[in-house]
Protein 1
Amino acid sequence: MFPRMLPRSSVILVVVMVLVLCLIITAFNIWTLSSLQSQHFALFHSNPTGQSVSSQSAAPKYIVYAKHPDSGYLKHVYNVMERDGYVRGDFNTSNDWDVMWAHDYPFKKIRDKMLKLKPGQRVNKFPGSGYITNKVNLATTGLKNVPQAFQLPKEKDLFLEYAKLHPNKMFVQKSNNHRGIQIEKISNLKLDAEGSFVQEFIDNPLLVDGYKFDIGLYVTLTSVDPLRVYVHDTDVLLRFCPTKYHPFDAEDKDKYVVQDDYLPSWQVPSFTKYMGDTAGFSFKDTLSAYIKTLGKDPDEMWDQIHQTIVDVYKSQEEHFTRATSHYPHKEAFFEMVRFDFVIDDQLNVYLMEANMSPNLSSAHFAANALLYEQVVHSVLRLVGVVGRSVTKALPLKPERDMQVSNKDVLVSPATCVTPECEGKSSCELQQCELCNQCLTKDDVDNLRRAWLERRNQFATRRIFPHPVTREQARTADKELGEVGDSNRKMSKWYREKCLMDRTWCD
């Protein structure tokens, strides 16, 4: 009996082994078919470019160029970026990134990296921005609404003559390396100090409940040739001196200098009713409402402020253009700057300074966190860094055309189909310069960016080229007064877009 059982047992064992092997092969075949199906779907449905699935789904990356970037003062920038799906990369170890947030000016110490920017990479600074943020440069431009200033020691004699003619005026001395200011007697001014300037002090500021204040506007430059400038339009930053202005005492800087420990607006009695938890108005709306109680028109003040900002950029546009020309991709750059203004009791505006990297830390005042994140979000949305329909830094042509194509930027259809504009020499005629056949690749790329900025404006407002109403578009050639051919054509394009589509009118 026993010898006959061994062969049967062996047969059973072989059968079991065959069945197990068949099950393993079947499972492997099922897994292989499933994998092939997934790859087929990814290739022909979700990934038309034929790139690998892993590279297609990689999160966009931002890097930071700043001193002590993890100390907290850039927290709100990180919040905005990471809510949009960005991950932070290491500035020191990788060139594979989409956006650089530079708190420090990157075109000196890391100029070599800026010269090697890849197509599609973006940087939140413009080459040459020091031409407007340098205190000496700005104060001595001679522009309207910038208090009279004299560069030292070069203009020492001019200053002394001016002071002699205006014995009642007060002056402050400033420099690029010194934040604080103080009113000084002329005899105490250091008139031979290099890199400094003396500036007229505005001694009749508008006061709210006895306190002097300044207004900070967040301004974004998106292009320099042609020039395009925007302001964050839904809010501003208001900062009050902690001590009442009167009785005036030049020795007490807390009466007339806004410093880091400023008095917050919501603690000023006349503003509390607007900014408290019940009403909840913004800084800007609160100031406008207060000015109306004085019987004055706040729109006139805002218009003055906007025009002053435009004047500053136009005065330095040539420097910006020259500085940017050294870099391979001028479309890589955008920049947000805070312009600080003081208003006098007649509602005249005075530009005090422009801050290249304005404070975005809410460490002193937690209530400012929302303002800072709204500003950063608006800037990044305007330039297409966040809120994008295509997440890749360098979309392919079908993806670019999906967002905005050549047909979207064309204007003046009635003019462009005339015999004059269809002739061989038509592009020499100004009326035909924006027709399709006369636009260069650079022209088209620039108009596409302008088109996308318009659609991405969100909480920002364009202040240059100047906004145009439908009536202005019909009756005035506002662009004829613009300096530079590229600015003239850019202004003309906005006017023609307004005539074609009223949603482009302001």
Protein 2
Amino acid sequence: DVSAVQRQLEFYFSDANLSKDRFLRRKLEDDKDSYVDISVLASFNRMKALAGGDEQLLRRAVNASPELELSADGTRVRRTQPVGDNLDADADGRTVYVENLPAKSDHDTLREFFAPCGPVVYVRYRCVGFAAQMYDGQD
């Protein structure tokens, strides 16, 4: 599903994720044009589950995204807007920690459940029964 892959890629490159994901942030910093190889993104477990290693599906998802772009040769991905110097300095003020969740909870059900409280930009699901939700900070 192109839209699911697009959402996941946009999440990977979001301020909320990059403020916590040292590996991906380092990849962006190591490239002078802030690109990440599409093969690296395709190797992530969540992306394997969504795209099954189909890099062409990732390319279609990037092309559908207003937030991402492909390199001229189609092998690398970057944000359309540069990453700022102060990634999510207010993250703690917009984070909700939740315990005693149902055992069958996953990222998608948690995002859907908390959506009425505001746009959820990051879900961290550590183990059964515990999660953290980060909101976008708008009223």
Protein 3
Amino acid sequence: MRPVGTELRTYHDFAAEDVVEKDGKKRHLLQFAMTGFKPEEVKVKACGSRVTVHARHEEKSEQGSVYREFTQEYSLPDGVNINALKSLFSENEGILKIEAPYLASEAPKETEIPIEREEKPAENT
């Protein structure tokens, strides 16, 4: 695994990192080198905290045939909003990006906890 921003060269190259935006929002970014694949040949699925990328390419000609298949499974870190995953395929770069924003964390709130009285049993004299 490489840090995001490094050059991904072949279809098995992969990068992942947390990114913090200027406004303080945090997201997890995955990048996969998908050179040789078209967007319609790539499927991204999420199940629980796991993301699976699967791609299949096949072409036939008089000279022969080419077959490529790629599958990568990744466990997302705790705190990621699974329901807000986004994916973007850049055909020019041959890069698939999957963005997973973190759930907004609330500042700890001060809560007053009421005190209940426990009555002592009456003494018999």
